[in-house]
Amino acid sequence: MMLRLPANRTGRDLFVGDVHGHADRLYALLDAAGFDRGRDRLFSVGDLVDRGPASAELLLAQADADWFHAVMGNHEAMLANGGRDPAVRARWRDNGGQWFDAVDAATQARLVERAAALPLTIEIAQPDADPIGVVHADPPDDRAWPTLATAAFSAGRDALPDTPSVCGALLWSRAGARRARGGEVLRVPGLSLLLSGHTPMHDWIWTGNRLFLDTGGYLDGGALTLAEPAAARCWQLGGGGVIERALLPQR
Ligand SMILES: [Mn+2]
């Protein structure tokens, strides 16, 4: 499913990398950026849950906030499986999903429902340019962006890596990040910019019309990045507190 949104004509659009349960860090970044919940919009590149202390709170807050949009990450894909498949549950536990066992059954059911309802892609119309896209990992090489609107997620098939489906690329691929790190200029036709996460990087990379935002906010020595491409700036929260930096295409 693709969530299509109109341009924001009253406020700003900001994008955050993989938050992984660190709600306090996200809110600190929003405060530093002067985020206005009445006018501005926040877009997550997925992986709101797992590893940090506030996975359930963060996913439920996102689902209840009209200013907060998110695509599904592979961690939400594992959550959407709800433990139905033992292979998924085992993999999920090994990758930060232990917290789910301590949540009451009613909340577990709500979380599974919310995770499964997340869109695979988001497309944001722009007033005088091609739309901006958001995806967790990579768009498949052999599919044009608009055709991804019909991509469907299966909590059985797609909640494990290397699935040969479209979701295998959208949720799990690291090919684009590898190519970006290797110095390639990447272009997705039909979009002015595509933001994604999933593969932790030493710093964000903006190459061609792709912006990779996972700067390892949950890792020692990493940082969480909040980006405002339209204003060419970003905010990062690492070990030394919040810093504001320029955000421009590197190649
Ligand atoms: Mn991921």
What does this structure look like?
The protein is built from seven helices and twelve strands. Strands 1-5-6-7-9-8 form a six-stranded mixed β-sheet, covered by helices on one side. It has one domain: Metallo-dependent phosphatases (Purple Acid Phosphatase, chain A, domain 2), CATH 3.60.21.10. The chain is an alpha/beta fold. The structure holds manganese (II) ion. Manganese (II) ion binds next to α3. Manganese (II) ion (MN) binds at residues 47, 73-75, 136, 198.
> Quick one: biggest sheet?
6 strands, mixed
For the record, the CATH architecture stands as 4-Layer Sandwich
- Terminal CA distance reads 31 Å
The total count of strands amounts to 12
Q: From the 3D structure, determine the CATH topology.
A: Purple Acid Phosphatase, chain A, domain 2
Average pLDDT over all residues: 97
Structural class of the secondary structure composition?
alpha/beta
Q: If strands are numbered along the chain, what order do they take across the biggest sheet?
A: 1-5-6-7-9-8
The amount of beta strand, in percent, is 15-25%
Shape: globular
